[in-house]
Specification:
The protein has about 300 residues and is of the alpha+beta class. It folds into 2 domains: about 170 residues, 2-Layer Sandwich (Ribosomal Protein S5, domain 2); about 120 residues, GHMP kinase, C-terminal domain (Alpha-Beta Plaits, 2-Layer Sandwich), CATH 3.30.70. Helix content is about 30%, strand content about 30%. Strands 1, 2, 3, 4, 5, 6 and 7 form a 7-stranded mixed sheet that branches. The radius of gyration is 19 Å and the shape is globular.
Length: about 300
């Protein structure tokens, strides 16, 4: 929602962590892009994007994990790429030269398999479209977001969804209830490209038999044993502590399902009750003292 701050328009957007409740690699295109099938959900915990009217574009990064981006130029930051893409679109579409001061508060670990950068880019697009009063047709928005990254389109939607292809085929899923969740990251970045390089190329075409109606319930996902992450073995091979964390999560009271999100290294567990999630996060923080442990909920 737009607000006036010192007579200047500004607004704040939430950039939720993206969690893959299951992830299957079902093929590979001739251009090298892998084809995926994944159930994606979003959490109440995440980064924040603040935007304010200005003559030019500026980006400032704050927060717990801001230092993880200090070694990269702003041109490599997905927030900056999203902002410049939208600025270019506005200039070509109606001749407007838009500007904004953008502040990214980085609460999510870097290179952690929970779509932090993609969520930041999506929140930036939403924020600047509102700030600059830009109405973009769906086709143009999809083209812009896919150029930024395969997870950006689903992060733009920000709701539970079955994601297929390289990220462009998205079907919204209405979950019957939203369980609590614990996220644990060993505070060690894990590059997606490296995990895919180590991935054993065994594509499971049978995964296309899953119907959208089969996954509206978390309990049904667990009962039917839909959870799998085809990238998990490759990630554990590079970072064995991932396997240890998943095992620890599965042993916590009330755990319904535990696994790895995306290409790692963040692991997750689901719980019906908040007290179990809070206790699990507290206990695992004591075990993995240098890890990032958060209790949150699917939104």
């Amino acid at each position: 929602m737009l607000r006036l701050l010192n007579n200047v328009q500004s607004l704040l957007k939430h950039a939720s962590a993206k969690i893959n409740l299951f992830l299957r690699v079902v093929g590979r295109r001739n251009d090298g892009y892998h084809l995926l099938e994944s159930l994606v959900v979003f959490t109440e915990y995440g980064d924040e994007i603040f935007v304010q009217e200005d003559d030019e574009l500026y980006l400032e990064v704050r927060g717990e994990f801001a230092s993880g981006l200090s070694g990269f130029s702003k041109e490599n930051n997905l927030v900056w790429k999203a902002a410049t893409a939208l600025k270019d679109y506005a200039l070509k579409a109606n001749g407007r030269n838009c500007g904004a001061k953008i502040i990214l508060t980085k609460n999510l670990p870097i290179a952690s398999g929970i779509g932090g950068g993609s969520a930041d880019a999506a929140a930036t697009i939403h924020a600047l479209c509102e700030l600059w009063n830009i109405d973009i047709p769906h086709e143009d928005l999809l083209e812009i977001s896919l150029k930024l990254g395969s997870d950006v389109p689903v992060c733009l939607q920000g709701k539970p969804a079955l994601m297929r292809g390289i990220g462009e085929d998205i079907t919204e899923i209405e979950l019957l209830h939203k369980p609590y969740m614990v996220l644990v990251n060993p505070n060690i970045p894990l590059a997606t490209a490296e995990v895919f390089r180590d991935f054993a190329k065994s594509y499971d075409s049978s995964s296309h038999n899953i119907k959208n109606s089969d996954i509206v319930s978390i309990d049904n996902i667990i009962r039917e044993k839909y959870y799998v992450n085809d990238l998990e073995n490759a990630a554990v091979g590079r970072l064995p502590v991932i396997g240890e964390i998943i095992k620890s999560l599965r042993s916590t009271d009330g755990c319904l399902l535990a696994g790895m999100s995306g290409s790692g290294a963040t692991c997750f567990a689901l719980y019906h009750e908040k007290k179990y999630a809070d206790k699990a996060a507290e206990d695992l923080q004591k075990i993995y003292k240098n890890a990032w442990c958060v209790s949150t909920r699917i939104k």
